Fold each of these.
Amino acid sequence: MLQSLHVKNLALMEETEVEFGEGLNILTGETGAGKSLLIGSVNLALGGKFEKDMLRRGAESALVELVFTSHDKRVREKLLQLELEPEEDGSVIISRKMQAGKNVYRVNGETVTARQVKELSELLIDIHGQHEHQSLLKKKKHMEILDAYCGDKFPAVAEAVRTAYKECRQLRRTLEESAMDEAARIREQELAEYELQEIEQARLVPGEDEELERQYKLMVNGKKITESLAESYQYTGSDFTGAAGSALSRALRALQGVSGLDERLGELEGQLSEIDSLLADYNRDLAEYMSDCEFDEADFAAVEDRLNTLNHLKGKYGKTIEDVIACGEERRNRLERLENYEAYIQQLENDLKAAETALESACEKLSRLRKKNAAVLARQLKQALVHLNFLTVEFEIAVGRSTGITAEGWDDVEFLISTNPGEELKSLSQVASGGELSRIMLAIKTVLAGRDEIDTLIFDEIDTGISGKTAWRVSEQLDTVAHAHQVLCITHLPQIAAMADRHFVIEKSSQSDNTITDVRALGEEESMGELARLLGSDVLTDAALSNAGEMRAQAMKHKRQG
């Protein structure tokens, strides 16, 4: 559930915080007050497009913060998948700070990406925008709605189709790329033989290039290294009069003559003896290193030649020795295929035929699932449409076969409707008006709400193009949806506003040279006044308030009966 919305410095909103409740949350206000801006701010928090001119005048940044509460296991799993720690109380806080050229998204205080916010929000909220019903004019949307209705079995069946389709496409591509005449095959075979021989002759060892580069570096700098090592050996050894080793030996002999006279002198002797041993160890290691640095020109030439060979192969076949070895294995496999070209092509064709059979079987299974659910969904949508004042409606979901197969199968799905007796069923695009499309979308949302696990639904002016009795039916349907979900609805119709469990008004006011949009919750008395305004009364007369009261009483009666 969406508990609260906090907006700061966005367009006409200076700073606004709204706390929503369960059930049906209604938002009303004068035209131009900024009703859609409120829902737009929710979209912004969830990754909607931000333009610089959306910032409030004089502000450097804007902030939108949404606080959800959800105990849905899927939400917890998604948080863990995004490496975010779920809160014990189920709260999910999504925020977005916006400024020119920079956006910062956070979930529960942790910085995240816009994509991660989108993935998470899909489990928390569903927003029906003002013009979303227009998407019903596209057949692609019809399939999406039917697929969403198909239940728990659908994802596995649909995934089987996508996997089989991908395999068929890959095999076809491989066949096309492998097609060649005899002359081309011979050229390819000769090239593969040459490249494989070149790689195999090198007798590559993983990591040898790193070791050779180390040796080469030492050899190139050999003279400088040898001179420095010899000087260090001289000054730390015992052969040179002023060397550290000689001095330490004399100091140790001097101390040994008196060390038995006092316990502390014995300790000092031990320390100096340890230093003498360490220096002797260093000297031996240094001498060993110097002997390893001895090389002749033949050694240098061999290392340089080997490095040139390896670098040539890496430049031609891969960035590392491992890449070159893998390339050699690929050339060996390719050579084997070319040497047995006809058998290889025949195997590809057999594999493709088997994959196509598997794809058709998967498509058939998916199609049966869609057709079975299409019949049930159509009946439920018809019932919902009748309740929304489509009194003589006929509704059908046609699932036919398209001309080809895609990753979604071979089905062609289309919603067909007839709103007048005797008229044949036709596509929505040929029949439905804007107001009818809006009600059809509400019917779809209502039916899907029974299967939808998303807690919060937002409807931005779902009442487009309706009035009178139809508006009451829409109001009742929204209340039905609000029994299972939290619903936020922006409306200009009193019939819908009367059904509110919580009523908010969006107001615009001017103070000196500033214009501010704010949102506040209404008590029952203030709600009556807002209903009277929506009914067309500029003055809150007793008659206007009485009409509002009657409308509210009718809505409450429906709620009690529901």
Amino acid sequence: MSLLQRVERVRQAENARAEAAKAGLTVEAAATGATAEAAPAGATAAAPAGATPDAAQAAAIVVSQPPAPPRQARSSARDELLRDITLRAQHEFSREHGSRLDIAPDALRTRIEEIFDRILVQQGFAVTRDERVRLVDEMLQEITGLGPLEPLLLDKSITEIMVNGPQRIYVERGGKIQRVDAHFMSNEHVRRIIDRIIAPLGRRIDESSPRVDARLPDGSRVNAVIAPLSLVGPVITIRKFSATPFTVDDLVGFGTATSEMFDFVRACVEARLNIFVSGGTGSGKTTTLNVLSSFIPDDERIVTIEDAAELQLRQRHVVTLEARPPNLEGRGEITIRDLLRNALHMRPDRIIVGECRAGEALDMLQAMTTGQDGSLSTGHANSPKDMLRRIETMVLMTGYELPLRAIREQIASAVDVIVHTARLKDGSRKIVNISEIYGVEDDEILMQDIFVFEQTGIRDKKIEGTLKATGIRPTFMGKFKAHGIQLPPGEFGIPAEEVAARAVPVGPGKGGSLAGDQGRSPDESGGSSGRGRAVTAGGMVYVSGVGPVDPDTGRIVSAGIKEQTRQCMRNLEALLGASGSSLEKIVWANWALRDPAESDTFSEEWVRWFPNDTPVGQATMMPPAQRRAGFRVSIGVIAEV
């Protein structure tokens, strides 16, 4: 090296000292040919193998930590220095290559390293080897990936990424939200990443359309919002999905539900029951829907419809449809309703709608009741009952002036099961309800929980518990047998058929039999076959729950109040006779009417059964189970033996 070159080298070293002083560091450049004694104490970064001469010089920077300003000030100055280096490198790369990216991956990394090394030597910037590698990686991710989001997307422990402007990035791990040490350089930087996400999908985001839904290649769901809707800068929310779909074993391992519960839900899917998965935001609805869809037989044709395709079905015969937003002229929009109507012409065995949000709920109900039984969908709700109310509201959003009763009858006819998911206080996601929809009574949709989540305790700040059977036998159990589905012994804790037979069969309505009323005793639900129960004590016989059920057929007689009263009296007379009493020995009576307006008609029939004075009596409230069974009247008495 000539003397002139050595002088230039020293000058560069002096410049490096000045720059590093701003960052809170003392820097000595180790010139080629310098002795070991000339280098101050510190760590010398070795040049990577095969590096260019410029790179070797940049890597030969010796860094030592002086007793300098406060750590926060040094960190802030250091960040500014690294930011300046990155901006210079990005500007240099853009000047040389523009928007073209026709460089092989290995050559691209080499080119980026050359640019950084040239800037470091020319400007005399001082960086450690680790910082240099990090800057190169970040720029590579910026050019080929999603910039600061790339390492977060690769982190399997992260389930959600939330960008609130360029400087604030949050993630969700284990159900808990935390801020991460990553950031964008500016609002424009965030916008570039948004454009990179949506451009391959043919979508756009600008002031005239400041929000967009999209997906990543791995199926992760993306929502982006910019000004004027967002006042904190561009906002990105990414719901990550596993590259490989979760299985039953995965969800059992997560504690979402037990394997036995998934066996039950599998039977529901195979029996072609229509299922809605409900739950709050981030409760695991889509993940649960993915697992439920995996139970569909492989020989069926499935059509999926979504705003942004994210379902991961593994069957062979799957048609995936995705809605399309309007173009710049506001034309060309294809909604989920449009796709759902078109799907009916595609000969599907089942239709899966990723989420019902509006009027498509009506079309979904129509599909469920016109040959596409066994279909699946999801919806936002805080409970199964809230899900029913939301479906009603979504149907009304179509603009059709449908009577509320007609809507509820349609819902009760179409939907068989609601699987409700929830995110608990500890951040865990669980299935907390499996509920049956089984009819309409008094303009109200009848629903009963088959399984509910029962919390057993808290261990290590984690909620423990499992789904427990409520003791109610669902009315659709017969469909399992019709499809040749054999349930295991015990049937998941659901009462056996002979036990459930004590309940009174319903009249009109889906299901055809009453499954009981939230664990009420047979007396409260109408007695054995609706003929009540007699108890003798102290010379008196006490009879309760006598309903209008024909003892020979086990069916409720005609729906008229007069006919039902006559059947009640026949049943009461037979029950008293078997207990050594009779109608004449009744000393007190109570009756329950479904409709108080029918009191006069009931009284006309009641007095005909008592030639002399009628017994003292009073009206009481009809139990819910009897109302659901279709009773218009039930009678209880006290009589002498």
Amino acid sequence: MKTISFLLLCCLSVVVQASGPIQGLLERIDKGASHKFVIEQVKSPVDFFELDQKGDKVVVRGNSYVSIATGVNWYLKYHAGIHLSWNGMTAKLPAVLPPVKQRERHETSYPYRYDLNYCTFSYSMAFWDWARWEREIDWMALHGINLSLALTGAEAVWKNVLTKLGYTRDEVNDFVAGPGFTAWWLMNNLEGWGGPNPDSWYDKQELLQKKIVRRMREYGIHPVLPGYCGMVPHNAKEKLGLNVSDPGLWCSYRRPAFLQPEDERFEEISSLYYKELTRLYGKSDFYAIDPFHEGGSTQGVNLDAAGKAVMQAMKRANPKAVWVIQAWQANPRVPMIENLTAGDLLVLDLHSECRPQWGDPSSEWYRKDGYGQHGWLYCMLLNFGGNVGLHGKMDALINGFYDAKADARAGQTLRGVGMTPEGIENNPMMYELAMELPWRAERFTHGDWLKDYVRARYGADDEALQQAWQLLGNGIYNSPKDKIQQGTHESVFCARPGLDVYQVSSWSEMKDYYDPQEVMEAARLMASVADNYRGNNNFEYDLVDVLRQALAEKGRLMQKAVAAAYRAGDKELFSMASQRFLRLILLQDELLATRREFRLGTWTEAARSLGNTLEEKSLYEWNARVQITTWGNRTAADRGGLRDYAHKEWNGLLKDFYYMRWQTYFDYLSRTLEGKHPQAPDFYALEEPWTKGTQVYTSQPEGDCVEVAKRIVKEL
């Protein structure tokens, strides 16, 4: 019977010599790679991929381009020992690929695998060009993504809409945020911060978005375009005579106003918005719409009417469209969605691995009825602020997914999985794990999965590397289910200095859950075999990343010694401990200089490259510098709590910004120990000049990462 079914499957298949987007994908991985595969597209009621062999060619069979790309990635990882990752999307394939010895099939009954968070577009993607976006869309396809947020170019839509409503160029720029802060503008949190944007910015983003959605559609990835959520400029009442509500402040920033659904112009303005959006980027089957995000006041708003008005506006644009909404804090408000039709709404359970809202009674954000009749996706947030740092909740992620699948109510409305990080290009292991969940029918252990990952990651089965990763997987990458914190255990190097400093960002909620010595031991194990893996891109990236974490752990311990020496009044010990702490910052800076992924210059160069004039380049670099340091002006940074939210352990930033702050603070403490009465540092006054600085930072790596790591690890 199996033989007959297989023959029937082959009869229904379309055999292609790696054509279309798959050919382009394979050729970008390695020139000539497309000739080493046979691609077969087969109709199927469920998403699936199969690996097979035909002569000396590997067969990848699937029901769609995305399923086929997922199969290619699975083959490369688990048959060829080649792991494509953010730190490397190319590889040298062997002349003859390792054969698939037995046909292998994976399928999923879940229709959606979703990608991205609004914040990702600012914390990671703010200054991307098409070349970087092309690699990312390839990454999406390889990881099974068939539904992705696509916010780029929203500025051009709003420029056109507001212009037609009578706003001037300057008024438009007072509303639209700068490139480093677009995400929070689109989430109705603020207006104008980071601007004003030059006309060329609107044009560039429009052209870039057209390329992005075109490539997504070629693959069969559905772009989730920004829908109309009722947002209008804060002065819309005075300017246009609209009936609006005031959602209040967000971290000291004034939010845009909310257009009341009862206003007779709601239909007109929402229709104008969708007309412009469709004209520029085409019609979509999915729209991201998030009114009242993160604490927006709903006072005076009929939420039932608002939900229906938003839905009706979307349906006028495309009757088949689905509203995609983030479950974060109180959103989506129950009255806004409870009377909407099942199938018209898709909820992103944004933080499933940590604060699920789908109905897990042990969750801090427990919703008794989950999302009612509406479909939802099990999502991993993992990263906040694009912060650098090892972090994961492996067991919580795995078990939470299979628990949700088995739940009598939530399991009936579960539609797939998603990745919703605020920042990417970090912790590649966790994203690999998350996106394999829908393709694995049975629950599995993190330890067994990790063994296969390490072999795939380095193309070798090395005992020292397995030991290192088991330490990491059982410790820093396995935060217990009941531990609530916003991403990584933040590095004290990046914190505003203090004697009792613990977390860096205002809302981290950090708590100790792993042994720092195990991270240091993992770094030593990796350094002990480093000579064997020279030139192995994945190994060298991980070596630097793990040792970076180990140095941060050492720094946290040393900071406690500094505080103890100060409180004891021991000037000699204080001097020795503080100098040791500062040296650790410089060692980390030197280590991170060896990889472009950890260099400030990679970020600032990308920002400046988008400018046509010196003025534009300076504006974009200022956006880049402010976002990762003060985030906002003095009020937003200090009273709003945003300073250091998007801190980064990056070469250049460590030496010129974090080191400067700590050295200033230690000088202040030293003078105090000497009986003087110095004025305490005004940290914002120290930080703001750096955001306006002009020092050039480059993306070019410096030093041999293996040699530097072998030397530095001896100082742990």
Amino acid sequence: MINMIQSAKEQVAQLVQQAYEAAVQDGRLSPAAGEIRSSVEMPKDSRNGDYTSNFALAGAKALGMRPRDLAAALADHLSLEGSYFEKAEIAGPGFLNFTVSDKWYAGVLAAVEREGADYGTSDIGRGQKVMVEFVSANPTGPMHMGNARGGVLGDTLANVLSRCGYDTWKEFYVNDAGNQIAKFAHSIYARCLQSTVGEENYPFPEDGYHGDDIRELAEGFLAQCGPFPADKSQEDWESAMAEYGLSRNIPKMQEDLRKYRIEYDQWFLESALHKSGYVAETVAKLSDKGWTYEKDGALWLNTSALLREKFLREGKSEAQVDKLELKDDVLRRANGFYTYFAADIAYHRNKFEQRGFDKVINVWGADHHGHVARLQAALDGLGLDGSNRLVIVLMQLVNLLQDGKPVRMSKRTGKAIALHDLLDEISVDAARYYFNNRVPSSPLDFDLGLAVREDSENPVYYVQYAHARICSLLKMMAEENAAVPAMEDVDVSLLGDEAARELIKQISQYPDELRLAARDYDPSCINRYLVNLAARFHKFYHDDRIKGEEENVLRARLKLADTVRSVLENALHILGVSAPERM
């Protein structure tokens, strides 16, 4: 797919190189001893042109010339005929500044017309298999605000990567084994017993799950199970209760996420790793490679040695590593049970070794930061190059506000704001847009009052309104027999004012924004792009009248408006946000 910014940069480099070679050919310049390494950039101030080359500054020393003299020689030999540029000027100490012509602006509009919904896509991923694992909340209760942010971040990131040529896979890891499930079952058991003998006769465990959802599960279980406690042991009851609770909670999670417009390629059960013996096999592999030892009846991973190797390999000094106070991790407890860390290593081995993913991206809460290097190092110990192939996107907390005032929430007391409750208060569009509105590493303020406002202060409304405004315009003009023309019937020179030119430049940036979002694992730049595109359109719409204009002007401006509509819809689709035709 064509990236008009990249095409222009490449053409500037080519034009300058050809000018240099022509100047050498006619004796104006002497050939350099080696290659002159220069760059082409886009100046922040458009008064310095649209693109600038530093070739004269980079090559001055090698050619024994003043940069401006070298720039003058290059300028005299530049041939812009047939290029994207109308002029090139010398500026400052020797920069060559290029200004794009109508041909380049026409190329931007033509690219959107030709590529349609595929505009902005690229093949930088070259078909690499990439898994994005996100949310992966414990199935012991309703999903909360943190899950809401992780959900849209992971889903949007996977969409971005797919548009950039990666073969993406979305996965939810269900932690249906281990201590949290035991506590979940114990909590249901306690509520069942309280319901039977009275709350005053059976104290609820302090570390249990206190939410009303546990009471509801207990009531449902009692209604289904018959006499309780009858003759079964507590262990048997809790096993049945865990199975019952998971059979209710996991479908609810799937339903909530589906309402949130998130569909996974797979829901992977942790219990499957244990039942298949894969956790035990993975731990045995680590032992075979000499990375484990026994102490106090437990089996330990020599994490400190693995981390030491990892950090030294990454360039830390011995002294720096010595200050880190590295610690080891238990893989198998003295009672024979494997730890969550052991299962996590096995799960990631499964991703790489069994299922053949080239790269794995996990979206985690920032409180898991201490686990990142440990897991990567463990995978290094298995020979899976976890330090390079496992990417962890750490996500900061969400501060929930109502009209600027904090809304208190506590998962521990059961007063958390659940995802399904949030989506009853605001639209899915607003939730998805806002939760992706900041760099993952930054805390996010989510104001419920702002999210439902219908004015320019609400960014999702502002962007959607731009799309709806264009759709209304196109419908009105169609009723007057003014259809959107094909690019071949548009005179781009009639889009020569600043508002129109700046709008086309904004359209041209979209492929680069997608590329940067994939490179930095930061889809929030799509939000910022959309706000800027909407702002540019609103200014163009204010400055450049369409209805009632002379036919050729009307056609050109109508084409530009429809091009903006296409790109807005394209980017909103990546965010999982609708592009309404009227508001």
